[in-house]
UniProtKB/TrEMBL annotation:
Matching InterPro entries: Acylphosphatase-like_dom_sf (IPR036046), BLUF_domain (IPR007024)
Transmembrane segments: none
Protein name: BLUF domain-containing protein
Source species of the chain: Leucobacter tardus
Signal peptide bounds: none
Gene3D superfamilies: 3.30.70.100
Residue ranges that the Swiss-Prot or TrEMBL entry lists as coiled coil: none
One Pfam family cited in the UniProt record for this chain: BLUF
Domain of life: Bacteria
Length: 158
């Protein structure tokens, strides 16, 4: 019998609050920096931004994920970094994105049918189960949206 040995992968999802107002130039610079570093470090994932708040999913080897999370926590462009979920995964969900980004619809528009507003829910919730569900919904929302609208590679553009 052959055993397929796979490198363990880790995914982390967190939310945070931008310290200064983040406009398109700041976001663009952040994405360029993150994508170049993630390419080097074998990291993939996606970033959402709304109302000066970030939601990010990162995935890669546990070492690479822990290292980038240390750097991200120390970054003074944002504060209030809350890890919503951290789990082992067998395969990447964002393998085509060194850091995918798609603009969010207007604040009051629901992200998914039946979901009031997952991005607000994920930020405001003290309930870990609700926050995890909202985080997973955001990941799903991103993949549906990025595939449907722009095509995978194009979705990287700001
Ligand atoms: C919201 C947010 C998301 C970030 N995402 C990443 C990322 O995916 N990968 C990365 O290497 N750096 C990311 N950074 C930047 C890091 O915090 C840090 O500035 C960068 O890794 C350079 O660190 P260094 O100056 O210690 O080398 C992010 C920063 C912020 C504020």
């Amino acid at each position: 019998m052959t055993t397929l040995q796979q490198d363990p992968l880790l995914t982390v999802m967190y939310s945070s609050t931008a310290v200064a107002t983040f406009g398109e130039p700041e976001l663009s610079a952040l994405l360029a920096q993150a994508r170049a570093a993630n390419e080097r470090n074998g990291l993939t994932g996606m970033l959402l931004f709304r109302d000066n708040r970030f939601f990010q999913t990162l995935e890669g080897t546990p070492d690479a994920v822990h290292e980038v999370m240390d750097r991200i926590r120390a970054d003074d462009r944002h504060t209030d970094v809350h890890v919503l979920n951290q789990e082992s995964i067998v395969e990447r969900r964002f393998s085509d994105w060194t850091m995918g980004y798609v603009p969010l619809p207007a604040p009051r528009e629901p992200l998914l049918p039946g979901v009031r507003n997952a991005f607000t829910d994920v930020q405001g919730s003290d309930d870990a189960v609700a926050a995890l569900r909202a985080a997973r919904e955001l990941n799903l929302w991103f993949r549906v949206r990025a595939n449907r609208t722009a095509g995978r590679r194009a979705a990287q553009a700001l």
